[in-house]
Design brief:
6-stranded mixed beta sheet; single chain; 2 domains; binds zinc ion; 11% strand; FdhE-like fold; alpha+beta
Length: 275
């Protein structure tokens, strides 16, 4: 699966050279990800509890309580830090400091992962400051290190989730917001979870962030000369969602990559005051 990821990255870079800057750091990490094999912890979930959660609109887990393989994620984070600290990056000294912390105690990485999952920006900048790194760098590395463990959990649980019965703008598995959407060949819209990658169908004329269904304040724009991508926005909450139309492409990469490869659309949305 990770091998596929690298192939997708190479294809995207070839087809859309502008995406190279965003995808190259991820490619480097993806090569290291091949070396870990996270285990999804067996989770006992009673069918009744799951049904009730689903009916009431509660995700299966809250982000902070996801039963993830943190040991695998810690191992991967160390690999990332070791690899990048040995390059000629300007922040290599900070990366080495972080590696030392990660080696000294498992608690340091554990705390970093929890902070990222909780989206506690204040705590994150403290962790980053301690090792002289940009918070964005440490956050990116932590997130990518968590990815294989999160995917292992999603793969183990996804079949138990009735996404058809889920009619909310947040993820049925972890409660996170969507970071992208796509139109299937059938024309149905699916949302993609920013954290675990779960996908679920959602009405086309409705904002997943504030539930607005008023056609007057919902809309979209497209980038010039770029077919197949739209940016849907909502003037009520001023949020936006990048959306890919699968009909327009022969092959679509995992949405996590499509997301990285379309950063120019984020800039365009930001220029128009959407966030
Ligand atoms: Zn999720
Ligand atoms: Zn909205």
């Amino acid at each position: 699966m990770i091998q596929d990821l690298v192939q997708h990255i190479d294809r995207l870079i070839q087809q859309r050279p502008a995406a190279k800057t965003a995808l190259t750091p991820f490619r480097e990490l993806a090569l290291l990800m091949v070396q870990v094999d996270p285990q999804a912890k067996p989770v006992e979930l009673e069918k009744e509890v799951m049904d009730i959660k689903q009916q009431e609109g509660f995700p299966l887990f809250s982000k902070e309580d996801l039963p993830l393989d943190f040991d695998a994620a810690t191992g991967l984070l160390r690999k990332f830090l070791e690899h990048l600290g040995a390059t000629d990056r300007d922040d290599r000294e900070g990366l080495k400091k972080a590696l030392k912390k990660a080696h000294d105690t498992d608690e340091w990485s554990r705390n970093l992962f929890k902070t990222i999952l909780k989206q506690d920006e204040k705590a994150l900048s403290l962790i980053a400051k301690e090792v002289d790194l940009d918070p964005k760098v440490i956050q990116f590395l932590g997130q990518v290190a968590l990815t294989p463990s999160i995917h292992a959990l999603r793969d183990a649980l996804s079949a138990n989730i009735d996404t058809e019965g889920w009619d909310y703008g947040y993820c049925p598995l972890c409660g996170s917001q969507p970071d992208m959407a796509y139109f299937a060949k059938t024309g149905r819209r699916y949302l993609h979870c920013e954290l675990c990658g779960e996908e679920w169908a959602f009405s086309r004329i409705r904002c997943p962030f504030c539930d607005n269904q008023d056609q007057e304040t919902l809309g979209y724009f497209e980038a010039e000369e770029e077919e197949g991508f739209r940016v849907y926005f909502c003037r009520e909450c001023m949020r936006y969602l990048k959306t890919i139309d699968k009909k327009a492409f022969e092959e679509v990469a995992p949405l996590k990559l499509e997301n990285l490869a379309t950063i120019h659309l984020d800039l365009l949305a930001n220029e128009n005051n959407f966030k």
